[in-house]
């Protein structure tokens, strides 16, 4: 009799265990958290990435305006004649932009193209000179140094032109965005922007002085 009772209890134990496990909800919250955690991480990472991209885009636009503004201010005017700007002053503008960029590493991941848009003797728009900063491979979208007879510089429908006897400092900037979380795979690529300022004071527009034999920031 005892043997039969023990056998019956042994057969009932698995069913009791299954029933107990089915009714036990102590680990339910942990299981739900484990299932939703990857989704939450992707959403949080994507939001952080997008916010960082927007901030980087805003900073690139501010740097473009800063370079154009500073380039429009360089050069001094003497009593006897208008003085040309110098290669040293142009390099200083680029150094200021790089410092402003901070951790963006504009020199390694970006490209600044500074152009002097003027009118020639035939009243044609021309790019008198052009200087560049940064190692990113990005050709000018609006023309190269020496281009004559262009309609202006800038995006289509928003081009600027130079008035007679003056110049416009046109800045095109490109930056290769580096993702914070590369494995997310959001389509966030190169950031580009544009700015233009008319020169503030009269200057000698015929040349860029390099009597100090400074490094020339050529675009080639």
Automatic annotation (TrEMBL):
Membrane-spanning segments: 27-48
Highest taxon listed in the record's lineage: Bacteria
UniProt keywords, alphabetically: Membrane, Transmembrane, Transmembrane helix
Name this protein carries in UniProt: Pilus assembly protein TadE
């Amino acid at each position: 009799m005892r043997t039969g009772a023990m056998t019956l209890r042994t057969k009932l134990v698995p069913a009791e265990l299954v029933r107990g496990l089915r009714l036990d909800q102590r680990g339910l919250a942990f299981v739900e958290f484990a299932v939703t955690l990857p989704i939450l991480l992707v959403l949080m990472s994507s939001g952080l990435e997008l916010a960082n991209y927007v901030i980087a885009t805003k900073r690139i636009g501010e740097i473009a305006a800063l370079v154009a503004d500073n380039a429009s201010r360089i050069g001094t005017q003497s009593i006897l004649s208008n003085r040309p700007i110098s290669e040293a002053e142009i390099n200083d503008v680029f150094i200021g932009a790089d410092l402003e960029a901070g951790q963006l590493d504009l020199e390694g991941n970006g490209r600044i193209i500074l152009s002097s848009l003027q009118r020639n003797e035939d009243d044609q728009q021309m790019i008198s000179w052009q200087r560049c900063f940064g190692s990113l491979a990005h050709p000018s979208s609006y023309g190269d140094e020496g281009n004559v007879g262009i309609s202006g510089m800038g995006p289509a429908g928003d081009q600027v032109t130079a008035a007679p006897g003056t110049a416009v400092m046109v800045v095109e900037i490109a930056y290769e965005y580096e993702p914070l979380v590369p494995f997310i795979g959001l389509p966030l690529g190169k950031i580009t922007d544009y700015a233009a300022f008319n020169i503030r004071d009269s200057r000698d527009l015929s040349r860029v002085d390099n009597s100090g034999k400074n490094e020339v920031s050529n675009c080639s």
